[in-house]
Amino acid sequence: MRLGHVIGRVTLSQQDPAYKGGRFLLVQPFSREQFAGAPLLPLAKGSSLVVYDNLGAGVGHVIAFTEGAEASAPFDQPTPVDAFNAALVDKIFYTPPV
Amino acid sequence: MFLARVDGVVIATVSHPSMAGHRSIICQPIDAEGRDEGPPVLAIDPLGAGQHERVLISTDGSHTRAHVKDPKSPLRNIVMGLVDAKETD
Fold first, then answer.
1. Mean pLDDT score of chain A
2. What is B2-82's CATH number?
3. Best exposed site among A70, B49, B54, B89 by fewest CB in 10 Å?
4. Among 3.40.50.1000, 3.30.360.10, 2.40.50.220, 3.75.10.10, what is the CATH number of A2-88?
């Protein structure tokens, strides 16, 4: 799992029925600087990705998302999901050694 | 499997049900010399690793799903051991 900052939402007018009950978020994965408290910019440098969400995350939230085969594990049917929002993060305690 | 150093913890109230009751730690992957390798990742920690302790992380999702007793869990990384010592040439 990785941490990411929700920078937007993706709305689909037509979608595969397998995605019913979920939303899609545009997420910026955390860099090491952001773990340490660097500001979360709405449009940061680096690649962003689309994450399936059924917990209700909003823009500005920090989430923990999982990728790969585990991203589609929570679904009953095999579902083409690359990234799945597993948790809404309340608090990060990060102190790397100096 | 890879070696990592524990650099922190994460608190989440709203999460997938399989994460409830499991400690989530921030792991910094390290190379053979102990240098940082890539950005930190999250892992479930059933062993209670301490701050800056070296741990062995498994990325086997099927073991993690068995550990949390939920076949539909999205979790993958889990702490398998606490490292006492390692040798390199």
1. 90
2. 2.40.50.220
3. B89
4. 2.40.50.220
